[in-house]
Specification:
It is built from four helices and eleven strands, in the order αββββββαββββαβα. Strands 4-5-6-10-9-8-7 form a seven-stranded antiparallel beta sheet, sandwiched between helices. A four-stranded antiparallel beta sheet has the order 1-2-3-11. The radius of gyration is 18 Å and the shape is globular.
Length: 181
C-alpha cells in the first residue's frame, strides 16, 4: 500500500513541474524556457515557478526577475494591444515612467522603465517590463532591482534581454551541435 502511495505522489509531483531549464555554456548561467521563449539568467539566483511563470531572486534579494507566458488567444496585433493595456494597468504608483517600442527576442516588443517607491523607505526600486507576442501567446519579462542598480545587476538585466529567443532555444542548441571542447 505504501508503494502505491509513493507512486501516486511521484505522478502528482510530475504534473506540477516547474520551469524548464538547462545549463548554459557559461557555467554561472542557466537557460530557462517558457513555451517558445528562452533566456539566460544566473544559476545562483533562487528559482520558483511553473512551466508558464518563473520567478528568480538574486542571492542578496536586491534584484528580481519574473517571466510569464500567457495565452491571450488573439492575433498578434490584438496581443500587442493587450500588452499595452497591461503596462498601463500596472503604471499607477510608478514614477519616472518611460514607455517605448523596442526589439526583444528578435520581435517587436513594448518596454516600460520606471521607479517604484517602497513604503517606509527612501530608496525606490527601479525596473523594466517588456511584452513580446508570438501570435496569441504573450510573454512578459519583469526585472527590478534596488536603486541605484548595482553594475552586476545591470549586467544580468542586459544578459536576460540580449539572450532572449523566441524559438525555445532550438537555434542556439543547433549552433552548438557538433562543436567539441
Amino acid at each position: 500500500m505504501k508503494r502505491a502511495g509513493l507512486i501516486c505522489a511521484f505522478v502528482l509531483a510530475g504534473c506540477a513541474a516547474g520551469p524548464s531549464w538547462r545549463p548554459s555554456s557559461d557555467a554561472s548561467m542557466r537557460v530557462y524556457t517558457l513555451g517558445k521563449l528562452s533566456f539566460e539568467a544566473p544559476a545562483d539566483w533562487t528559482m520558483r515557478g511553473t512551466q508558464s511563470n518563473v520567478k528568480l531572486v538574486s542571492p542578496d534579494e536586491l534584484a528580481r526577475l519574473e517571466v510569464r507566458m500567457l495565452e491571450v488567444g488573439a492575433s498578434e496585433p490584438e496581443c500587442m494591444a493587450s500588452a499595452e493595456h497591461s503596462l498601463e494597468r500596472g503604471s499607477p504608483g510608478l514614477q519616472k515612467i518611460r514607455r517605448s517600442e523596442t526589439t526583444v527576442a528578435g520581435r517587436r516588443a513594448l518596454a516600460q522603465e520606471a521607479d517604484a517607491p517602497v513604503a517606509g523607505s527612501a530608496t525606490p526600486w527601479h525596473g523594466w517590463a517588456y511584452a513580446i507576442c508570438d501570435g496569441g501567446t504573450q510573454y512578459r519579462i519583469f526585472f527590478t532591482g534596488l536603486s541605484p542598480i548595482a553594475p552586476d545587476t545591470l549586467g544580468v538585466h542586459r544578459r536576460v534581454v540580449s539572450t532572449a529567443k523566441l524559438d525555445g532555444g532550438k537555434r542556439a542548441a543547433a549552433r552548438g551541435a557538433g562543436k567539441r571542447g
